[in-house]
Amino acid sequence: QVRLVESGGGWVQAGGSLRLSCLASGRTFSAYGMGWSRQAPGKEREFVASISWNGGSTYYADSVKGRFTISRDNAKNTVFLQMNSLKPEDTAVYSCNCEQLGYWGQGTQVTVSS
Q1: Are 102 and 2 in contact (CB under 8 A)?
Q2: Stretch 97-109: mean pLDDT, rounded?
Q3: I want to staple 69 with a disulfide (CB 3.0 to 4.6 A). Which of 62, 82, 99, 106 is the partner?
Q4: For 26-76, how does the pLDDT look when each residue is reduced to its tens digit (9 = 90+)?
Q5: Rounded to an integer, what distance in angstroms lies between the CA atom of residue 99 and that of residue 18?
Q6: pLDDT tens, 83-100?
Q7: Residue 74 CB contacts under 8 Å (≥ 6 apart), including other chains
Q8: For 88, phi and psi rounded to 5 degrees?
């Protein structure tokens, strides 16, 4: 069974940092791009960041550029999202995904208080 399982979410004060992890199991994703998206209550899901199969290219939403960093460790089948200078508007459920293959994780809650 293929699964993407996120971890690392939690509660943090504005200006703080969190590091999310996404562990893939059931198959290897090392040949595919991976990404993170988020969904806040009452809002549409939005793109946060993506990374190419080898980590050579990364893309970010304007709202997180300069604050978030996506990375991956293909040997561990894991994708990371380092989030710094967090703002209350970053509060959402964060999910990792492999859009090419159509896999999505359940998500991890991130809450940033002002």
Answers
A1: no
A2: 95
A3: 82
A4: 988 999 999 999 999 999 999 999 999 999 999 999 999 999 999 999 999
A5: 24
A6: 999 999 999 999 999 999
A7: 28, 29, 30, 53, 54, 55
A8: -55, -35
**67 CB contacts (<8 Å, ≥6 apart)?**
83, 84, 85, 86
CA atoms of 74 and 92, how far apart (whole Å): 26
| Strands lying side by side in the sheet with 18-25 | 3-7, 18-25, 78-83, 68-73
**66 with 53: CB under 8 angstroms?**
no
Q: What residues contact residue 111 under an 8 Å CB cut-off, 6+ apart? A: 10, 11, 12, 91
Q: In the structure encoding, which two tokens stand for residue 64, read together?
A: 């997180």
Give the model's pLDDT for residue 81: 98
E strand map for 1-114: 3-7, 10-13, 18-25, 34-39, 46-51, 58-60, 68-73, 78-83, 92-98, 103-104, 108-113
